[in-house]
Please model this.
Amino acid sequence: MSAPLAIQIHNVTKEYKRNGQAIPVLSGLNLNVNQGEFLALMGPSGSGKTTLLNLIAGLDWATAGDVIVDGLNISGLREKELTRWRADHIGFIFQMYNLIPVMTAQENVELPLLLQPVTRNERRRRAATALKIVGLEGREDHYPRQLSGGQEQRVAIARAIVTDPALIVADEPTGDLDRTSAEEILGLLETLHRDLEKTIVMVTHDPQAASKASRLLRLDKGQLVGDETQAEARNRMGVS
Amino acid sequence: MKYLGYVLRNISRNPVRSLLTIGSISVSLFLMMIMLSFLSVNSEVSDSLKGSNRIIAMSSQGFAAQVPIRFVDEVGSMEGVTAASPLSWYGGKYQEQEMPFAQFGIYPEKIFDIWDELTIPEDQKKAFIDDPAGCVIGFKMAEERNIKIGDPMPLKGTIYPFDLNLTVRGIYKSPPDRDGRMCIFNWRFLEEGLKKDFQGRQAGNAGTVFLKIKSGTDPAQVCQKIDASTINSDTPTRTQTEDAFVAQFAELWGDMRLMISAVGLAVVVSLIFVSGNAMAMAMRERTTEIAILKAIGFTNGKVLGMVLSEAVFVSTIGGMIGALGCKLLFDVFDISPYTAGALPFFFIPTKTALLGFGTSILIGFLSGLLPAFAAARLGVIQGLRKVV
Model:
């Protein structure tokens, strides 16, 4: 029996308007993602990876079609509803970490919890746990400027998991890191996927990063042109 | 409250900009408080005098015209009047200083019944009454000039030809909104000097007449009665309550009041622009951060609230320093000695300080509106694109 679906994309089209002209980015896309999958979205620039990620994360609306996450069709939600839904269901990891520079690591991680009905002590406890998971115990009071790029991205990951979301979306999470730091971050994402059974959707250009995912999707010109498991990809490339 | 930490951190993010914004608001409000207080001090004092049961009779021709001294006894014996005294402006030099403080000829045995908020020890009051050449001075003047009881107080006449060589017999205390630097002397001493040495030139003038009326007496009726008694005389009077008398000084400002109000309004509008510009710059720098906040679940309303709170907080600090600080400063520091007698007392009325403080909150709110709406309406994708 297959795992329940975390994400269902039905016939999704996304167009942007520029000077009154519709520019298609995604065309009639269909996709199912099981709970607990670690998905890597790959493809050339302009292929629609980030657009698809934005639709899955509820940051944007599809022009047509349905985006169903955890059984809820988010295409029909209004902006305010979508914003509240994101707070409860999605963890974000960005390429540039995007931490608040005037807040400590602990405070940055606590930020999403401000929107949850939890006490201050509970916020502190949960943030400390998240920082421990990403290996930043003892760095709670450090400001982003006092941390390396890899450490900043770990804080961002802690911020993404602190509300215990079902889905984590990562847009080029290693794009701004050196190889060693990138490996650490990818290892961390693997741990979240393996040990905490998080569903992860990661956009990446980096084959090394994609190799950590359980499933690889390739997009080109708004169409899904490849969909294989990690094992299938390795077999295809003759890698053991 | 749980977002307060974030708001405060944002204020300290660019300390120079925050300090400059706070500085411009506080300096402008400080100056505005002084300007407005020049207008409102008289009204404030006038309000505080309501119910003092004091009325003032002066010539219908104005201050400079004479009121005969016999008039004091006439009105003093009217029904409802408990005490009456001349209040004759002397305006002399002290140690070659032109009008350094107010000097009035009065009736020593009556004046402290009329000005009952001024306090003086009984022995000093008696000494003042007993010595025709005695005078009583305010405690502020005594402190500032280090004058003690028994010291000479020579005043050189500028309006009257007769110089007064007085001796300090008492020092009175007064509340903060009353002149604590007056010198009052026995009117009869001046009168005798004018009669003896100057053939009575300028003698017999009461100047104005201060009256205390019984509690419960209708002051308007007494005023009417007094004016009716003099209407057909050579010296008709204009009698009014003390608060109305003081209020007429405020009216002397005339169009200046409107001008100062207009300048105040212009200052407020400029401050809205200054503060609004600072907030707009701050928001522009934080476009990505705002997008991130919205991505992780902060609604438009929460973003709007946080940006507005930040603007209001900065502005309120400016208001506290500028408006409330100004009040505190003038409560502690007395500028009167440095105004060459032009301002016997000056303070920032509480109402004016609160108006300034309230204005600072309004400035913060209005200046934060546009940047806050811009931040709230920012699309997450649009904001994130600015980074990458």
The interface with chain B takes residues 54, 57, 59-60, 79-80, 83-84, 86-88, 92, 94-96, 98, 100-103, 107, 111-112, 114-115, 120, 159 of chain A (CB under 8 Å).
